[in-house]
Design goal:
- There is one protein chain.
- By secondary structure, the chain is mainly α.
- The chain has 11 helices and 2 strands, in the order H-H-H-E-H-H-H-H-H-E-H-H-H.
- The protein has one domain.
- Helix 4 crosses helix 5 and helix 7 packs antiparallel against helix 8.
């Protein structure tokens, strides 16, 4: 990469990070000024800016700021990557099931109803939630893995550091969501943790997740495996929460055995899987930054 291209990439990365961190907060400020309900997704500029800003910023930078489309990762790149698609599809459901079972066996996770009918309701919730989550993850993954991961990789020749930076920016984008946009009632349905410990654990947990998804992106030359993995994490956890499939005896039990991406056991598993992916034979940097 020549100096001019590297300078442009650094400039655009700074623009991207500034926009996706600041613009959702601008929406929150405008909602407060006009007296809108911050929790109403249908009438909140905060929600609208939060959802649209990452992908919109990417499109503007690629079209008008010289970033181009070579490393967008739009093509599925199925040839030779079947095992990674299977890995992406089954990893989160299997690890969430394992953590729930481990917590249940240890007596720290309650599963009050393990009947066929309850499992059927969970399955229905997964099916109903798949399409909305798929659309939402297009807006996310073509920003984090379709733009941020390959751009940082092109200027930082240390993938783990690059994934860490992606994770920090990714978490920063989530802050208005957790702090103001999501209602306390909805938050309480997902976790008994207070917001500060939840965010601290989230900070720890999002880095291994960024490594895991980022490595899938780099070695397949496609965003779709990471998008599928993100999708399964969302729909399975949301379905389990919606159907009240599990519960915890204490906050420490939840911190340890939560099947979401903030549970300590899940974080450890994600880190191990991400590091394992990182240590697998890698394509050349030139190939991993091309759209196969």
């Amino acid at each position: 990469m020549n100096i001019e291209t590297k300078t442009r990439t650094i400039r655009n990365l700074l623009i991207f990070a500034t926009c996706i961190i600041a613009i959702p907060w601008l929406g929150v400020f405008l909602d407060i000024q006009r007296g809108a309900d911050l929790h109403d997704q249908n009438n909140s500029l905060g929600w609208l800016f939060f959802i649209l800003t990452p992908l919109a910023t990417v499109l503007i930078l690629r079209i008008f700021a010289g970033d181009g489309w070579q490393d967008f990762g739009l093509k599925p790149a199925l040839n030779g990557n079947g095992k990674w698609y299977l890995f992406a599809l089954f990893f989160h459901p299997l690890t969430m099931g394992f953590v729930l079972l481990l917590g249940y066996v240890s007596g720290m996770t309650a599963i009050p109803d393990f009947s066929t009918s309850k499992l059927g309701l969970v399955g229905q919730a997964i099916l109903v939630g798949t399409l909305p989550s798929f659309v939402k993850n297009i807006f996310e993954e073509f920003a984090w893995r379709g733009y941020l991961t390959p751009k940082i990789r092109s200027i930082i020749d240390k993938p783990l550091i690059g994934h860490g930076l992606v994770g920090l920016i990714w978490l920063s984008w989530h802050l208005p969501y957790y702090l103001v946009l999501i209602s306390p009632e909805v938050m309480r349905k997902s976790t008994a943790l207070n917001i500060i410990p939840f965010l601290l654990v989230g900070l720890v947990g999002i880095i291994p997740t960024a490594i895991l998804y980022g490595e899938l992106r780099l070695r397949t030359n496609s965003v779709w495996p990471a998008l599928i993995m993100h999708l399964t994490a969302n729909v399975f956890f949301d379905a389990l929460i919606l159907q009240k499939f599990f519960g915890f005896s204490s906050m420490s039990s939840e911190l340890l055995f939560a099947p979401g991406l903030y549970g300590i056991v899940i974080i450890a598993i994600n880190f191990a899987a991400g590091f394992w992916l990182y240590r697998q034979p890698r394509p050349s940097q030139k190939k991993e930054l091309e759209n196969a």
